Amino acid sequence: MTMSKTGILKSSLSKKYVMAFTGLFLCIFLVGHLIGNVQLFSTGPEGQAAFNSYAEFMTSNPLIKLMSYLTYASVLFHVVDGFVLTIKNRKARPVNYVVEKGNLNSSWASRNMALLGTILLVFIVTHMQHFWWTMHFGDIIMVDGVKDLHTVVMDFFNPTVNRLAAVMTGLYVFAMISMGFHLNHGFQSAFQSLGLNHPKYTPMIQFVGKAFSVIVPAGFASLPIYLFLIQS
Ligand code: HEM
Asked: What's this model's pTM, rounded to 2 decimal places?
């Protein structure tokens, strides 16, 4: 093997590590974000006050700010390395193997990680414009001295306020189904990339990955559906 080929292999390997680390970090972010979002099920004045002060804390605490910057960096590295790895894989194998068309030795999700990831990227960018941008730079009403993000989210999925609420609810649910498939392969794949293969622990990791890929996206999707239904 020539030096350059070794170099390419090494850089592919380090890219796989970056994918795994950033992917797992983003899974931790998802758990935190979901716990925060659960508060939005409380739609009355008490829920409003609690969620708004939580959002205020999340945007001002220095430690959380650091976590936010790590999240943005993780998304960036995960996306860039994901694209580079996909292009390299395609170049290495210009014609798809016939067996790859079936599900004999790979799942549909594993063969479509780039497509699913691209859907998620589009979702994250538009999603940040919906709420993050509004929270940081938008015209947002103050209630009891803090920004009223609670009402922004409620109104976003309220068909009597936002005429696109049904479309948005549908798009959020579609994005969460895509995230479910992406996580279904990605979670266990990250552990494999890190070389954490063990006859005893791998089945457990696979089980946790499968459970995570159903519970977390379902949890996220349930909120837009709930807010849309109770306000219709
Ligand atoms: C489907 C239900 C979801 C709702 C209602 C929701 C709501 C929100 C809200 C209100 C914010 C603004 C928080 C702030 O800036 O203080 C936010 C930020 C954000 N959301 Fe979501 N979110 C959902 C799902 C997701 C998912 C599935 C992802 C990732 C795939 C995601 C990624 C982000 C990111 C990266 C930020 C910026 C966080 C930061 O600045 O630290 N969200 N979301």
From this structure: 0.91
